[in-house]
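Obj: model holo form, ligand = magnesium ion.
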Amino acid sequence: MLDVSQLRFRYPDASHSINARRGFDFSFRLGRGECLGVTGPSGCGKSTLLSLLAGFLTPESGRVQWQGEDLLQRPPWERPMTSVFQEHNLFDHLTVHDNLALGLHPGMKLSKSSRKKIPHILHEVGLEGMEKRYPTELSGGQRQRVAVARALLRRTPLLLLDEPFTGLDTETRKGLQDLLLDQKASGATMLLVSHDPGDVRILADRTLELTA
Ligand code: ADP
Ligand code: MG
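Output (holo structure tokens):
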């Protein structure tokens, strides 16, 4: 169970901007294998929530527990989660293969069995045979699929997905949704930020509606 309670945050320079939100306060609970859809207008704090959970931002107060353990004490790389951001997920100087290999091992030292996972996951996300391409040689939607593939390879219990379907055609979108439904069925817990009520309806068990 992911237990987020009164997680409060304020950007340090928020007082200088007229349009900036005054502060954020998040509370929700999410069981294993559940998906929480996070919705709301642009600027309401959806990406901020994911950054707080991942540990890229530090809250003023509140609680984030996973299976009873306090995650706020852990640095981002020791938290049991993987994030897929809206952009800038991939290293442009590395091939698709090496971007995926990084998800499996920080030094890209792969055993024979983990090496086999790369062509397999590329097939799953509809990018078969693209191992040698560089991110700059892919469309935005293809890059997004590589990012999702890398997140899935890591097999962390929690997945934080920020608009993962943006820029995808209907068929690819459906393919990725099926893949995420499979992950859920095998126990993955997810937060799905999405503008699209259709995506939320398909994947989310519950919705956290944030207001501007
Ligand atoms: P969303 O993902 O829902 O569109 P964000 O979480 O990115 O919204 O942003 C929420 C609010 O915080 C917005 O008002 C945005 O302008 C502000 N904000 C985001 N990042 C920063 C930052 N680094 N410094 C100051 N304000 C920020
Ligand atoms: Mg956002």
